[in-house]
Every structure is written in C-alpha cells, then in structure tokens.
Amino acid sequence: MSYFMTKMTERQNGVDDLTLMSSISVENIVTQLKHRLDKNKIYTAVGDVIIAVNPYRSLPIYGEKHVRKYQTAKLSDSSPHIYALAERAYRGMKEMGPQAVVISGESGAGKTESAKLLLHYVSSVSGSSSVSANMKQIILQSNPLLESFGNAKTLRNNNSSRFGKYLELQFNGAGEPVGGVTSNFLLEKSRVTYAGRGERSFHVFYGLLAGGWPELLSQCQLGRAEDYAYLSQGTTYVDGMDDAKDFQEVLQAFNTIGVPMEQQWYLFTVLGGILHLGNARLTGRDAPAQLERGGEYSLEMAAYLFGVAPADLLKAITHKTVAMGGRRASVVNIPQNADQASQIRDALAKEMYSRIFDVIVAQLNSVMYTRDAQFGKTIGILDIYGFEIFKENGFEQLCINYVNEQLQQIFISLTIRGEQELYRQEGLPWREIKYFDNKTVVELIEGRNPPGIFRVLDDTCRSLHAVDSDTADTKFIEKLSMSAVASHPHLRILSSTSAFTAGFTIKHYAGDVTYSVKDMAFKNMDNLFHSLVNCMKTSTNPFVRNLWAREEEQAHRQPSTSSTKIRTSCGQLVQTLMRCQPHYIRCIKPNEQKAPMKIEEKRVLHQVRYLGLLESVRVAKAGYSYKATFDLFVQRFYSLCPGLQVGGVDGCRQLIAAVLKKHSEIAKSEFVFGHTRIFISSPETIFMLEEFREQQMDPAGYAAKVREYEQMEAAANRQEAKVATRGGGCCIIS
Ligand SMILES: Nc1ncnc2c1ncn2[C@@H]1O[C@H](COP(=O)(O)OP(=O)(O)OP(=O)(O)O)[C@@H](O)[C@H]1O
C-alpha cells in the first residue's frame, strides 16, 4: 500500500506541516511553500513553528471572523495560521506561565506585520475593561512613535525596522492586558550619519523638517533635508509616505504617554543639533584637524543646540582623551587628524541619537509597566533581524548572527528539553535525540575560556591608542590567528587578498558566513572617548545633561565596547526567553520586487537555509513523528476499528490491534504507549493511517482520488519524458 494520497497532497497543495514531507531537503521545503502559496496558503507549520511567507497583498484571512474561528478551535486540528499560534500563546499564558513569540526573518519578510497581527489577536480576545482598553491604546500609539525613531526607508522595505524589539505584555488574572515593557536591541545607529543610495536615515528627521513647529524650526535654524550631509547622501523622499502627517502622530503619541512639551522641545532641538553637527566638516592632514570653511556656523549651531561651548565641542571632536599608565593613571589628549576627528564627530551624533532612542523607550515603559499584573502572566513578542548573509559581511552581521545563534540555542534546548521531559512524564524509555548543538558556535563567538572572537576583539581594542583603523584590523586578525580559538573547527581565518581585507569564516548552524575584519575594531570601540562624554556633561541643556548623566566620571576607564554591550543585552534576553514557553514565527520574503504571491525559488532557498528550517524540521522530527492523547487518537481514527465502543487507552489499544491485524505492512514497534498519550515513530505510518481512514469513511471519494492521482502521475511522467526527449534527444522514460 502506498501512501500516495499524502504524496498527492504534497505535490498539489503542499503539506500543512513540513515534518510530513516525504523527503526532507531544503529544495522540497521550497517546493512545498510554493505549492501552498499558489493556493493562497501563506502559513506552514514545522511542528510548533510557523513559517509565514509574505504575500505582498492583503488576504481575507484576518479580522474578527477569523479571530473567533481560532479562539474556539481545537488547536491540534486547526490549519497553520498566525492566529492559531497567537491562541496557543494566549492560552499558554492563562493556563501555565510566561510565553514568548520569536519572530525572525530578513528585512521585508513580514516580521513587523506578524507582530501587529499577534497584537491584534491578543487584543481581540482579551477583554475590554477600562484598564486594558487604555493599555491597548498606549500599545497601539507606541508603534508610530517607535517606528518614527527606529524605522527608515531601505532598498528592501520603505518602513524597515532598524532595531530589534522585545515587547512583553503583562496580564492580570483574568487574562486582560494591563501593562507592558519594551526592550530594544541593536539599533542601527550608523544610519544616523550615513544612508546608502536610495535609502534614508530614520523617519523622524524628515518628519521634523517637514512638520515641526515653525518656532522650533526657526530656533534650530533648520531647512530642507537636502541641506544636511547626514540626510543628503541617500534619498530624502519616500513614495506614498507623508512625513509631516506621520510627525503629527509622533507628537500625539508623546502627548498620550505624557512627555511634557518642554521635553519634546529639547528632544527635537537635539535632533536639529545632530543635523548641524554633520555639516561641521573637518579638514587637514595634520592633527588636530581644522573646520572646513563654512563649518564654523554648523559647529556653533550644533554646540548651541547641545548647550555646550563651541570651542569645547571642537576640542572634544579633534582630540581623543585616553588613559595612560597603571594604578596612578593619567589622562592625555591626543590630537586627531581630519579622518579620525570626523569619526569622533559621527560617533557623537550616533551615540546622541541612540541615547534619545533609549530615553523614548524608557518613557514608554514608565507609562506601560505595571506592578498590578499577575506574576508570570506575560507574553513577549521578539521582532528581530534574522540571520544575515550578504556578499560582504562585517561587524553588524557578526552581531546579528551571534544573536541568532543564541536564539537557536534556546530553540534547540527548549524544544529538545521539552521533548525529553514529555518522554519522562509519559514513562517512555530514554530515546536519544540527534541534532546539531550550536553551543560550540556561541562559545566560539562569545566564550570566556578560551576567549572567543568578541573577547579577542575587545582585547585588541584595549591595546589600541592612536592607531588608524587599518592597523587596528590587522592587529585584530593577528591576535585571532594566535588565539586558542584559531583552530576551532567552526572557524577559518582568511588572510587578505587584493579583493578582500583579511577576515574569517564562521560555520554557523545556518551555513558558512565570511566576515571581513575591515573597521571591526573601530566599530567595536565606537570611538566614544571621554572627551565627548565630559563635554556633554557640561551642557546647559538639561535634556542633554540627562542623556549623559548615567556616565560615571570614567576618564580612567575604557568605555564599554559594542560587543560587550551586545553580549550583555543578549544574555538578558536569553535569560528572559529561557523562562518562557517559546513559539516561533519564521518569516520569508518570497521575491525582491515585492510582487504579490510570487516565489523566486533561489531567493527562498537561501532564506530556508539561513532561517535554519531544515534544522527545525529535524528537531521537530527528532523524537516521535506523532503524539496525541489517547482520546484524540481514537476520535480521529475510530473508523479503522468498526464497532469500537471505548475511548482512552483501551480504545487506543483495540484500535491499533485492529489496524495491525488488517495491515501487516505496519510494524507493531511503530506504536509506543505513554501514560496519557500514544507515540508513533515514523511519518509514513501516520500517512497510511490517514489514508486507511479516508478509504473507510468515503470509499467513493477515495476511489475518485485514486483515479485522479493515477492520471496526474501519468501526466507528470509524460511531461518528464517530453523534457528528456527534448534535452538529450534519445532518452524516453517509459
Ligand atoms: N501578512 C501580510 N499580509 C499582507 N502584506 C504583508 C504581510 N506581511 C508583510 N506584508 C507586506 O510586506 C511589507 C514589509 O513587511 P514588514 O515591515 O513587516 O517587514 P519586516 O520583516 O518587519 O522588515 P524589516 O526587518 O525591514 O523591518 C509590509 O509593509 C506589507 O506591505
């Protein structure tokens, strides 16, 4: 007996769950997604993981009617849908404890839309008391605010989130949302000072210039976006976007969350200061650098808006303060040339912006967070860049891929651990689950002993004083080559060639990625020197002073590096997620042109690899292919045992005995009984059971499907024969 119906479904419609594919390969995953998208099915499951293919058009699968369907559905029987996952998370939160939904995928794949759909679902099913209505309103308004400061136009997405976000919703005992906390990660602050061709900086800059209060624009002496070096490298305009209108939403959100007018004013003047700072161009091969002609006005405006003296600001930019010596350390000011000083100026702009972003998030949290929530009643939503591999990969990709390695670690340990725990609870014998544990890659990047890549990089940065960026990169790769991890099986160090600055390849769980070390050391140091910190702390602008207040007098300490900050915030995230029941949404961008319902196979293949979907299928199939409570199993397959009168374990045993008696091709060892569930080893057995069931319940329909399948196979064979004849000219497949 073949399980042809399953194959037919697989070939025509794609399987609902990829663990049911007849052959497991990345190519077959793509084929399945394609078949499903052809049938308007954008969601596919891999066990409990949901794959969401961006349809690039609105589909009639959302809204209240669909919410009600999933709210009342038996989840084990419902088709894959983001609402089904949202319902699982919501029920899990109410009945058990903290839940987390991890959404990943490349830019434009649909992460933010998925997060919004989740919020919509939870908001729809979770009560309407005045506290929760108020909270829903705040959460709703926080979106345009965070998007204005954290999103930008990129070539891939006009409204691309340039930061990772973890929103933890807090609920009361009745399951109503009463609060929340947002954490932000990896803001792409380099976008403040540079946006590539066709891209823009963060939306808020254009909004401010297009829709800011006239008195504010006049005080800041602000003009058009094209007038500012930081905004004019890319484009300044986005099709279909109304910057002035969006800016009004920002102001409204500030009012809703209670940011006083005075603070709003100060905040926007600092943004204006950043724009002027970018126009303070520096020149001169010798150190210290000088301002270019005309640069004095820009520097003065920046200094005025930051509330510091122009001479102090210039000195802080053109001199680097470093600590020298051991215990009785002294501080020296090293003059910087134009390139170095420009880097420091940009570092100030980036840091100022990123601190403003942090302040906004903190302000949001101060109104959202509540102590009245029930302990452990939370649902977290993590919307974060997926694994990245570009033609050229640098420090940013290393950080993003490191976070994704960590997330994969959690995925593996919680899934496998959960599976093993279930076996233990069910009294099943220990069954080893084989999978690739990427812990070794996490340690290669962040390890302490032996020091991993980040620590070698930090060590290099610590020993840098007045060297240029190229020398720093060379020193880093030398150190890495001599370090203990140099011979790590997942690392290959590459020396420089004419086309490539030295670098290294990491064998990640999702594939090999080659990183160039160009500018890694400088990006890691962030070039934020004490001179800048000390200058900003003298500001007469209370908002600016506050931004820098957290800095201790730390002229004698090196500032924390970017990789240390990422390790720390990622560590906190991991701890939070480890306490939760996780749910995963892997988003896929089907094509580059944003064309509705179209799959470019090569593109999707690439993402399937880098989202680690093959690994997900393997992990989901690692234990038993199928598990269900005795009752559920009996409910589904009772027709295979005519006259069956009982449910539970007895019903299950009788049913299986009947199947084995009639179908000798199924081995008894396929079925394992736990305390409350039945487990089935291979997917083939389930396919067969499904087929027997269909045959039993609807013989005529089944016979028609057999005929349809045979015709389809014959047509496929004829087609293959034609292709073979055309291609080789001599091979006819009979
Ligand atoms: N489920 C969906 N239905 C219809 N359109 C969608 C859906 N998901 C995404 N889109 C479309 O794709 C666009 C990009 O989606 P989104 O902004 O969510 O991507 P992203 O993964 O968050 O990207 P980035 O990482 O750049 O922020 C949306 O503006 C929307 O037009």
Automatic annotation (TrEMBL):
Keywords: Actin-binding, ATP-binding, Motor protein, Myosin, Nucleotide-binding. It holds the Pfam family Myosin_head. One of its GO terms (molecular function) is actin filament binding. Gene3D superfamilies: 1.10.10.820, 1.20.5.4820, 1.20.58.530, Kinesin motor domain, Myosin VI head, motor domain, U50 subdomain. Residues 13-694 form the Myosin motor domain. The keyword ATP-binding applies. Residues 570-592 are annotated as: Actin-binding. Belongs to the TRAFAC class myosin-kinesin ATPase superfamily. Myosin family. PANTHER family: MYOSIN, MYOSIN-K HEAVY CHAIN. This is Myosin-1. It comes from Hondaea fermentalgiana.
